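Entry, Tuesday afternoon. Goal for today is a structural model of the target with nicotinamide-adenine-dinucleotide bound, before we commit to ordering more compound. Inputs were pasted exactly as handed over by J.K., no edits. I checked the ligand SMILES twice against the vendor sheet because last time a stereocentre got dropped in transcription.
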Amino acid sequence: MVDDNTVLVTGGAGFIGAHLALGFKEHHPGVRVVALDNLKRRGSELNLARLADGGVEFVHGDVRVPGDLPPLKNLALIIECSAEPSVLAGYGEAPGYVIDSNLNGAIHCLELARTTGAAMIFLSTSRVYPIKRLRNIALQETETRLEVLPDQSQPGITTDGIDETFPLDGARSLYGATKYAAELFISEYAAMYELRAIVNRCGVVAGPWQMGRVDQGIMALWVSRHLFRGALSYIGFGGRGKQVRDMLHVQDLLELILLQAARMDTLQGMTFNAGGGVGNSISLLELTQLCRQATGIDIPISSNPEDRPADIPYYVTNNALLQSNCDWSPRRNLEVIADDTARWITDNRRVLEKILG
Ligand SMILES: NC(=O)c1ccc[n+]([C@@H]2O[C@H](COP(=O)([O-])OP(=O)(O)OC[C@H]3O[C@@H](n4cnc5c(N)ncnc54)[C@H](O)[C@@H]3O)[C@@H](O)[C@H]2O)c1
């Protein structure tokens, strides 16, 4: 990235997009960074002042509308972070928004890349892996969590987590399907138009400025419900809170994206699983314990044994491919993620109570 280049971050007022836009500007002050967002996510408007303070230009626009994607001078990189990011999107409702935004929106970004010669870093998801396949991972139950058994019948899953060879056949939710379809278009654009692109299939990303909801942003949800003494429930898999995810601090993700942007020529065409990994894996029961430590508050948690659609008992990222190609590993542990999230909510309590409370 050289001075006078422009970086466009779509979904740039969202949790990840705003963090990446601000981080890019901080690390490359001579680069023009533009954040585009339609402000659909409640709370994303709170990031506008932060973006302005950090020297990031904001464009109110919608990736579903090709004309909203600005014709930027010297556009070198598009970081596609816009999305309807809920795995529950489309269940019991019309699928229009998630398809139009996540798939057509991504294709409009690809068109911008094709016509300008810009490279792309695409924020995909672990949810490209099919639900049935993930539910078929052989697990054993310990006192506080589910753990992967050493013997598995499927490729791509070991006690180190899920790698990129995990099977891709089967239904995966509209969220996962739109992201996977966008990945397929990226590889077609790479083959047909020599698009330079990197795909990151992220597990759970967490940290300050995440507007956590019941269906997305579990760390912010759990910490905020503790701080605001709200209601929480262990949902699904018997209601015992033993389902497991790994968590990646958003600052670790920024460090990865900065590295990838700098090495686009060698990494282009690659697809990576990117997450906190086994060392940053946690069950809901354990998360409650962590939140009690981070907030000093103990709240009752109810139990609902019914599985929600698209729910999976276990997802932990195997970062080996990233580690060997990018020389990167997550540096911030779960305590840091919880403490940073709790501090952010406490410092912004008045305004966040309306959104997270
Ligand atoms: N946070 C995670 O744990 C996680 C995990 C895996 C993948 N991802 C992916 O990372 C990206 C960023 O997620 P996030 O957690 O920051 O979510 P977010 O909801 O905070 O950010 C997404 C942003 O996109 C905006 N947006 C939605 N529809 C739009 C449209 N049609 N046009 C323009 N902007 C639009 C929203 O207003 C929001 O600000 C998404 O692509 C998501 O799928 C996130």
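Residues 96-116 form the longest helix (21 residues).
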